[in-house]
Amino acid sequence: MSLFWRKGYESTSVQDLVNITGINRASMYNAFGDKHGLFVAAVDRYLETVTSKRAALLEAKGSPRAAIEAYFYDLLDFSLGPGRRLGCLLTNSVVERGPRDAEVDHKFASNLQGIEQRFIDKLREGQRLGEISSRQDAEALAHFLVGSMTGLRVLARGGADEGVLRDLVETSLLILQPGVN
Hints:
Layout lengths: L1 H6 L6 H8 L3 H8 L2 H23 L6 H17 L8 H9 L4 H28 L8 H20 L4 H13 L7
Helix pairs in contact: 3-4, 4-7, 5-7, 5-8, 5-9, 6-7, 7-8, 8-9
């Protein structure tokens, strides 16, 4: 997973995979079928570990606004720390492989829909509680937050400096404040 995440699908050779996993080609092909099969398994692992851990922040009990803030600050901390310049494996893969990889495209879209729905649920709850501005539709705000999240990951991958990433997060969260258009 980390090799594909760092190098991308196209730049990762079968020999790279053999070297990092320590298994021979025959065993790799027996287990995964081909490089793409291993890549899909790596994407699934990413979803099970990295993505699900962060998504759990949006399912936390308590303040809906605090849950959304925790999500974005966790993403920012990762993007400034150990994840510096990694971006998101799914986003990177969709940008790199585009419509040539329908399976990964589907996983990307499904993942974004799940995150978006979690945002919608938290936004609606926060609007009911008066924690989040009701001036915007929760779905529209969720679309905006998904775009901000994706943009943050792409900017981090591209090496944007800390100030740019912090500004993106803080401005994205500012729009949620009651009384803000």
